[in-house]
Amino acid sequence: MESRLFDRVPKGGQTGNTLRGMRGRHLTTLFSGIVVILVLTGCAGTGSEPFQLRLMPAPDVYDDGRIDPFIEGDTDNRDREIGILYATDRLPAAEDDRRYRYYTREWGYVVRVGEANVSFGSDDGTSWEEARRMSLLKERPEDIPLSVKSVEEYGPFLPTVRPFDENVEMTEAPGKRLIEEIDARLAVTRGKDVYIYVPGYRVGFEYPALVAAELWHYLGYNGAFVTYSWPTSTARLAYIPDVESALSSARGLRILITHIAEHSQAERIHLIGYSAGARVVSRAVADLGMFAYGLDEREIRRKVKLGHVILVGSDVERAQLAGYFLDGALEILDDLTIYASGTDKALGVARLLLRRYRSGQIEDVEDLGPRAREFFDNTEKLILIDATGTVGSDSGNGHAYFRSSPWVSSDILMTLMRNLPPGERGLVRRTDLPVWAFPDDYSERLRDAVESDHGKHGQQ
What we know:
This protein is an alpha/beta fold. It has helices spanning 15-40, 128-135, 173-187, 206-218, 239-263, 277-291, 297-303, 318-326, 345-354, 370-378, 401-404, 406-418, 442-457, and strands at residues 52-54, 81-92, 103-120, 145-156, 193-198, 224-229, 268-274, 306-312, 335-340, 382-386, 428-429, 436-437.
């Protein structure tokens, strides 16, 4: 968006009209900015308590009881506390900080790693087995709260410590401890995958740990889950500085990915980027694409290990994302899935403010030219899914549908858990566009596909 604030004032009697026009344009820009901030406020969805989140609706894939996510996971000896591994480049909170319990909204430059202890359910004596059963119900008798009870920081992650960070301890111990914890989780599950969740705008440190906990819960505690909590702010007027922080945090995420790939027992690393967090993920993947330039497939598998990369409500400008493809982003992963929605009000207003379509918007896709259509048709690694109209997708401002829509959450989980391609998990390809869509009988199609996959591999 160009500003004409410093344009030369025309001669003659047009000065007043010109100034009024400039004021009008800048007031319009200011108003648009305020609107986008108010709409994007809904990204966080942290609930009435600052460190508590209500468990998302049960994914439809588990609705009729035929498919149980907990059969293969480490659930036999579990209690109602979940250890979520984390990495963050937020600044640690001071002991006397009354606003922040663990980490502030400020950029701490150095990535720190540790574990957040998340409580699952109320402290009312409910057993783990009963809480687990309730979590799969479509109609629950009561909400299931998630809250961060405690945090153990392992320490600064050495590969991110710069030579001039004088007051930061330089030791390999935190990075080694992170790998030990990941491998301990992988040792007790069939799946050897690591999942990394990157949150969106306007959330505190605790929120992504809670979302990671509920996603890992519905994955049956298979594999290991890590959240990357980049320094977003809970302030209403923080959208612009937050999205700038996203690009700064991409480096830390990239280093974390390569560290896990090279030192852990993980076979694949999957990324989930939501909203402005998609900026962190997409930039990190593009950097890894350039990092892997010239490496053969065997070396890429060993040093990167990227599997599914999923962007939901992606607040990445389309042309910027296309540039990342040229940087090699699609060469180093199994596939990149972009969920988009026509009822995502947050991205609609972001587009109004920034004057460019976001990659999480489905509008104007029908205007794709022949070159773009050919690219989509010939690029199997790039998958575009239209989530418009799915159950629960228009809840609130229509932005957090990966949690509010039991169809979308089911589709994401079965991509991660079963590695099923779109056509084998109930989606249909539109005949007029290179886009996958949810049919009316999606839930039944998905459950049948997953059950067939179970039988094919003798897993249930």
